[in-house]
């Protein structure tokens, strides 16, 4: 063997590693995480984050105490003191945020510790007062984390960013299985580059994490159809998903329906009647039994008086308040709500090229499921309680396609119901978007196989080899370009960004679609804080706990919350139902604003001053 041949052979393993889908997926995950960490500081703290930050400080304090005094920390009365705050929502992401802050957060602004010292001095010898100050100090974590490299808010946001990075990696791997590298990149980009996804991925909240966990459970389910080990693992994975957000409670029934539909289709096509063991197999039992146990284990509030507190949890969500939401120029805050809302908002916020590919992908997989014969290869094992579909479960199978369509459609169908509360806009069907992405990858694979022959089939009349290699890259730029541009252009106001076919933010405003609802578009004003009047400021929709987080990080100017009549300046976040606020502020400060933050000339925050 020549020296050159030996060298080429020695390099072959390295080339194989560099071409590994797992390596590309890992690099995409790191890129996603670095992008989110580098841009999140400009995304203001939304209303929900304020309470989650405070809850995470409580939960993180409990973790620290459990490390010091495990027995005392696990007394029901003591534990409940930490977990009573925001107990109506699962604890896992708040626990993760608290742990992340205890590890990585910089110490809060020195003014926080100084205020606590003054309180302690004022308490004198009063044991009750001193205990109260000690409790505040424990929650305040004035020493910062063990490795203080991030702002506290960024440290608490980090777990959600990691979940977003995981979703990108899994979508790349799934897309790669469906159609190679370009399909993998499309699947990852079709999710991560959506402006609304990018916005929510930057928050200390549950919406992107539950979208990720829904994807994880779905992929595990496909493996569980043919591998009993994944069938067992499905229970803990579902438990983790439930501990992230209540959307996961729908997964058990949906996956059961998917299995029964697949079995029914096989029976219809082949006459292969399902066995009883296939109808109620191990994966379903694992989800039904192990899933709830894991969810409770990850939610310390439920460790005491479990059944009563679970009942309270369901009661809270069954009676959730209705938020105001503008839709075609009309404000909705009571049922019946428009059935078209999630469908129109999906059209208006997801670039149309991705929606077209999603629809094509859905058509391809449904046609395959309902017209093609099922896989009749001899299974390695007989269908059983452990392996209900031994030949099913591959990502390019009809079973997987049916699952993707079902999980893409269900969140939108659910929100379409007239009595389902609207309290968060598009974030409440973010769980559909990973499956939109996988359907776009299915469409991509099908389209390229239709228009581009394989190398073995190519003849002289076909495009040259260089063009066949370049065409997918150029097509990816065309397909993902609108999302990427919209996300970059809309940052940090991507909650107000809309798709090109809707006319962007300006077109959506003309259509009367909602431009914001969380009081977050304030960070640029914090940088201008010294140029605005110090003293009393009417902060409108900025949550008090979000202000507290800015203060802890030394980012809040010398503004004090005030009513309109005493304020020297005022913020206004324009929404349809805020007309009364607009009139009141104009009467107090005059019709001309001092400053306006805009996205494509559409106001997202208005500042009035004396």
Automatic annotation (TrEMBL):
<feature type="transmembrane region" description="Helical">
    <location>
        <begin position="469"/>
        <end position="488"/>
    </location>
</feature>
<dbReference type="GO" id="GO:0016763">
    <property type="term" value="F:pentosyltransferase activity"/>
</dbReference>
<keyword id="KW-0328">Glycosyltransferase</keyword>
<feature type="transmembrane region" description="Helical">
    <location>
        <begin position="340"/>
        <end position="366"/>
    </location>
</feature>
<feature type="domain" description="Glycosyltransferase RgtA/B/C/D-like">
    <location>
        <begin position="153"/>
        <end position="270"/>
    </location>
</feature>
<keyword id="KW-0808">Transferase</keyword>
<dbReference type="GO" id="GO:0005886">
    <property type="term" value="C:plasma membrane"/>
</dbReference>
<keyword id="KW-0472">Membrane</keyword>
<dbReference type="InterPro" id="IPR050297">
    <property type="entry name" value="LipidA_mod_glycosyltrf_83"/>
</dbReference>
<feature type="transmembrane region" description="Helical">
    <location>
        <begin position="206"/>
        <end position="225"/>
    </location>
</feature>
<feature type="transmembrane region" description="Helical">
    <location>
        <begin position="429"/>
        <end position="448"/>
    </location>
</feature>
<keyword id="KW-1003">Cell membrane</keyword>
<feature type="transmembrane region" description="Helical">
    <location>
        <begin position="402"/>
        <end position="423"/>
    </location>
</feature>
<keyword id="KW-1133">Transmembrane helix</keyword>
<dbReference type="GO" id="GO:0009103">
    <property type="term" value="P:lipopolysaccharide biosynthetic process"/>
</dbReference>
<feature type="transmembrane region" description="Helical">
    <location>
        <begin position="237"/>
        <end position="261"/>
    </location>
</feature>
<feature type="transmembrane region" description="Helical">
    <location>
        <begin position="282"/>
        <end position="302"/>
    </location>
</feature>
<dbReference type="Pfam" id="PF13231">
    <property type="entry name" value="PMT_2"/>
</dbReference>
<keyword id="KW-0812">Transmembrane</keyword>
<feature type="transmembrane region" description="Helical">
    <location>
        <begin position="179"/>
        <end position="199"/>
    </location>
</feature>
<dbReference type="InterPro" id="IPR038731">
    <property type="entry name" value="RgtA/B/C-like"/>
</dbReference>
<protein>
    <recommendedName>
        <fullName>Glycosyltransferase RgtA/B/C/D-like domain-containing protein</fullName>
    </recommendedName>
</protein>
<feature type="transmembrane region" description="Helical">
    <location>
        <begin position="20"/>
        <end position="37"/>
    </location>
</feature>
<feature type="transmembrane region" description="Helical">
    <location>
        <begin position="154"/>
        <end position="173"/>
    </location>
</feature>
């Amino acid at each position: 063997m020549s020296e050159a041949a030996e060298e080429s052979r020695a390099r072959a393993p390295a080339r194989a590693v560099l071409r590994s889908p797992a390596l590309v997926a890992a690099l995409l995950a790191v890129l996603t995480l670095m992008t989110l960490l580098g841009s999140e500081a400009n995304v203001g703290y939304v209303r929900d984050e304020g309470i989650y930050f405070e809850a995470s400080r409580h939960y993180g304090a409990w973790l620290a105490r459990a490390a010091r005094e495990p027995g005392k920390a696990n007394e029901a009365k003591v534990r409940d003191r930490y977990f009573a705050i925001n107990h109506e929502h699962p604890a896992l992401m708040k626990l993760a945020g608290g742990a992340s802050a205890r590890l990585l957060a910089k110490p809060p602004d020195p003014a926080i510790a100084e205020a606590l010292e003054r309180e302690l001095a004022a308490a004198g010898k009063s044991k009750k007062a001193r205990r109260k100050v000690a409790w505040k100090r424990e929650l305040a974590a004035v020493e910062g984390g063990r490795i203080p490299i991030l702002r506290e808010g960024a440290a608490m946001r980090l777990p959600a960013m990691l979940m977003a990075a995981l979703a990108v990696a899994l979508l790349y791997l799934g897309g790669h299985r469906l159609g190679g590298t370009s399909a993998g990149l499309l699947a990852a980009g079709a999710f991560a580059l959506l402006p609304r996804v990018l916005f929510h991925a930057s928050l200390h909240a549950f919406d992107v994490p539950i979208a990720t966990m829904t994807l994880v459970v779905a992929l595990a389910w496909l493996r569980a159809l043919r591998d009993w080990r994944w069938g067992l693992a499905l229970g803990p994975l579902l438990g983790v998903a439930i501990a992230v957000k209540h959307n996961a409670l729908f997964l058990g029934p949906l996956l059961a329906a998917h299995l029964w539909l697949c079995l029914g289709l096989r029976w219809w096509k082949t006459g292969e009647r399902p066995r009883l063991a296939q109808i109620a197999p191990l994966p379903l039992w694992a989800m039904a039994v192990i899933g709830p146990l894991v969810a409770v284990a990850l939610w310390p509030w439920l460790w005491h008086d479990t059944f009563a507190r679970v009942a309270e949890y369901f009661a809270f969500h069954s009676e959730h308040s209705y938020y105001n939401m503008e839709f075609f120029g009309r404000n909705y805050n009571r049922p019946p709500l428009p059935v078209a809302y999630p469908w129109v908002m999906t059209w208006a916020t997801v670039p149309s090229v991705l929606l077209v590919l999603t629809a094509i992908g859905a058509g391809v997989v449904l046609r395959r499921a309902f017209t093609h014969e099922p896989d009749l290869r001899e299974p390695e094992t007989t269908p059983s309680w452990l392996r209900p579909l031994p030949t099913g479960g591959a990502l390019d199978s009809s079973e997987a396609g049916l699952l993707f369509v079902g999980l893409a459609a269900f969140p939108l169908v659910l929100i379409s119901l007239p009595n389902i509360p609207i309290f968060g806009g598009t974030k409440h069907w973010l769980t559909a978007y990973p499956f939109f992405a996988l359907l776009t990858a299915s469409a991509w694979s099908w389209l390229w196989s239709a228009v581009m022959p394989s190398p073995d089939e190519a003849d002289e009349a076909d495009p040259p080899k260089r063009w066949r290699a370049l065409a997918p890259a150029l097509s990816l730029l065309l397909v993902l370009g609108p999302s990427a541009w919209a996300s970059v252009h809309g940052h940090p106001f991507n909650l107000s960004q809309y798709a090109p076919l809707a006319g962007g933010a300006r077109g959506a405003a003309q259509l009367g679609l909602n431009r914001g609802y969380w009081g977050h578009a304030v960070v640029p004003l914090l940088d201008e804080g010294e140029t605005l009047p110090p003293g009393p400021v009417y902060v409108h929709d900025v949550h008090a706990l979000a202000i507290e987080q800015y203060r802890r990080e030394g980012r809040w100017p010398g503004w004090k919350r005030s009513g309109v009549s005493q304020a020297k300046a005022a913020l206004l976040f324009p929404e349809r139902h805020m007309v009364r606020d607009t009139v009141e502020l104009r009467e107090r400060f005059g019709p001309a604003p001092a400053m306006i933050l805009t996205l494509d000339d559409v106001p997202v925050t208005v500042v009035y001053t004396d």
